[in-house]
Design a protein that fits this description.
about 160 residues, about 25% helix
Length: about 160
């Protein structure tokens, strides 16, 4: 059985990163999009990251263009949207697929561990997965669940 820490992903700048780099951290994985009705959640995700990073929270953004063509740009455009419009400083990864045959291994793992309303499918952009400090998936949040509404679960998982 594969674990979260055995997985890797590539950053927006093309650097491979092992999820083992986040061992001991509380990880929030989010499939994102720059032209979605939920895109303003970037601001809330950044606020959570800044507030709780000193206690061990890390947010990982994975752009995806599978829902309504809402992430059509390349790495530079994605970076501009995230950094310029929302001040995102948490790690952003290359554009991936979260459903279908080409599903990225991180999302295949998370969907298997925490199926949602559609089973092992992602419904839309800004589906979020909280992974404990031990690398075990804890909770899945729907796209409409704002970052602010996740704060209680994050605090509990941080041990506060």
């Amino acid at each position: 059985m594969i674990t979260f820490y055995q997985l890797t992903a590539t950053t927006l700048r093309g650097q491979p990163i092992s999820m083992a780099d986040y061992a001991g951290k509380l990880v929030l994985v989010v499939n994102t999009a720059s032209h979605c009705g939920f895109t303003p959640q970037y601001a809330g995700l950044e606020a959570l990251y800044k507030k709780y990073a000193p206690q061990g929270l890390v947010v990982l953004g994975f752009p995806c263009n599978q829902f309504g063509n809402q992430e059509p740009g390349g790495p530079d455009e994605i970076a501009r949207t995230c950094h310029s419009n929302y001040g995102v400083s948490f790690p952003m990864f290359e554009k991936i697929e979260v459903n279908g045959a080409a599903t990225h291994p991180v999302f295949r793992y998370l969907k298997d561990a925490l199926p949602g309303v559609l089973g092992r499918r992602i419904k839309w952009n800004f589906t979020k997965f909280l992974i404990g400090r031990d690398g075990k998936p804890l909770r899945r949040f729907a796209p409409f669940t704002t970052p602010e509404k996740m704060e209680t679960a994050i605090l509990a998982a941080l041990g506060n």
